[in-house]
Amino acid sequence: MNLTPHSPFSSKASQLLSWGHWFTFANIGLVLVIALTYLAADSAPNSIAGWAYMLVTWLSHTSFITFCAFVLTVFPLSLVFPYPRHIRGMAAIIATLGILTLCLDAFVYYQQGYHISLQSLPEIVSLLVGMINGLSFATALFLILLVAAILTFELIVGNHAWRHLEQLKSYKFPRYATGVLVSCFAISHLMHVWADANNYFDITKQDNVLPLSYPTTAKTLLARHELLDLNEYQQARTVRLENATTNYQLPANLPACEFNAEPVEIVVLTEPLDTDNSLFSDKAWFTQTQLLVPTNTLDQYFNLVYGLPAYYRSTVTERRLTPVWNTANTLSISGATPFDYLEQDIEHSKVSFLFSPKMPEVNEDKNYIVIEKSIDKSIVAQTKLHTNLPYFSNHNGLMQGNDIMMTLLDQHFNCGALAQQTMLGNVVGSESVNQGVNYSQGVLIAYKKDRIILVNHDGSHKQISAKEGFHLDQKLDTPFLVQSIKRLKQFTGKASGL
């Protein structure tokens, strides 16, 4: 094979290589737009440094993976099969498949909180099947047009770059753009090294946002050059969950609440519900199928009554503290529970708890929240919640027992300020980022969208999909865990001492 500089083969290969750079440059712009979905999926940074890191990482990382995709696919084809017309067609198809894969990963991350992997394939298939089954004609047409638009974009870009290659070669701005992207790549890694070494979580919490993201850490880089004390580093990064009986401290001058709305009865079933029960099939009732509860009964009851993680159960019950929201004639509890000291006149209470093996007779004029018994024997399980209150009807995804009382105070009794200052939960249906934290039997329970993370005292952990139950073999999101622990310890007065 003749590979001299003046051979037709070498000339075509050189031209295709130059064309490939411009083709990749155009795709970088498209990928940058799609990557905005990842940034919108999580909460925004809280500092200037966090925003700066997000910007440089968005520019550099998306450009890097796009360039790598070109090097691994189109570039070898250009050398082995240097026929411009065929290469442009194959490159358009390959790029379209790559862009569609990125769109799918962005969709999965936005909906579920994790990226595509072999472990997540069952959940992704289930998600896609459910989406396809529920597709309207307009949505299906939109998806078809989207695929056609991407393929058309790739064909137009490829043909335009080839036909105007000599003109494009005269432009100088690509070298400046390349310099900016390379600088952003270096800056992003240096910022992450600094943030990792100093536990600056507004930066490190962004580790898992973009696909195929493995930023340089202080441990891997500085320890390699003996510039980091590994013992000190590990001590700073260790997740500490001890002292579960730390003093329970609430803010002073809590806002008052009138509790003028209609009463609500919360029924907690202590036996499995009859599957033939047709009460909840009524249109007035809403069923939440992903209520995440501790399998420890006392922890579950504590979540419901106090709107707090069971991390505080020992101190609260030992000191016989009533819920802060429990003003006169507000709360009553009946049934076999550990909260006998909270009983009040059930006829005048605004929130009444009934712990019962069977569903009581329903009064259509009353407000109900019914929680089924969980039969799972692990640390945490999912069960069902049934209610005729409208505040829970717009919620998709996981929710916890803490969220029930938080939502009641905020939405039903108009006591949102009191709930925000005294409870650790989410107002159901109003959270832009679906995440929460709990604690039971010495295990930290944190969830983010569909991903549940369980962390033991010894640091061992596992990640599972909430919907399908399979294990997720993905990088542990340490910054998210640390932020979850800080939130968990909010009322101990020691949240900053992690």
UniProtKB/TrEMBL annotation:
The UniProt keyword set, sorted, is:
Membrane, Transmembrane, Transmembrane helix
For this protein, the record's InterPro entries field holds:
YejM_N
Q: Where are the transmembrane segments?
A: 21-41, 61-83, 90-110, 130-156, 176-195
Note the superkingdom of the native organism: Bacteria
Q: Where is the Inner membrane protein YejM N-terminal domain?
A: 9-246
Any coiled-coil regions, as ranges: none
- State whether keyword Membrane applies: yes
Q: What is this protein called?
A: Inner membrane protein YejM N-terminal domain-containing protein
Q: Which organism is it from?
A: Pseudoalteromonas luteoviolacea DSM 6061
Starting at the broadest rank, the lineage of the source organism is: Bacteria, Pseudomonadati, Pseudomonadota, Gammaproteobacteria, Alteromonadales
